[in-house]
């Protein structure tokens, strides 16, 4: 079955093969964003780096990385980036 997986998702030495690829995205409640005086004039975040804006401190939520594989993947990806 791994012959159907593109080479870019396989380790060149054969130690591992990727088997799943999923997108992680930023979700924004635009109604809340527009009603918040600190956020209304800002552009919506388009990249993970945009989430570092001081105005967003205390306003972000992610799944708990201790109980969620997606939360762990997001946190690990941001840390490695």
UniProtKB/TrEMBL annotation:
Keywords: Signal
Any Pfam family the entry gives: SBP_bac_6
PANTHER family linked: ABC TRANSPORTER SUBSTRATE-BINDING PROTEIN, THIAMINE-BINDING PERIPLASMIC PROTEIN-RELATED
Protein's name according to its UniProt entry: Uncharacterized protein
């Amino acid at each position: 079955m791994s012959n159907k997986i593109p080479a870019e998702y396989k380790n060149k030495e054969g130690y591992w093969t990727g088997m799943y690829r999923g997108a992680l995205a930023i979700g924004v409640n635009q109604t809340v964003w527009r009603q918040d005086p600190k956020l209304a004039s800002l552009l919506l975040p388009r990249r993970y780096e945009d989430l570092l804006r001081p105005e967003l401190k205390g306003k972000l939520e992610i799944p708990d990385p201790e109980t969620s594989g997606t939360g762990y993947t997001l946190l690990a990806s941001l840390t490695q980036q």
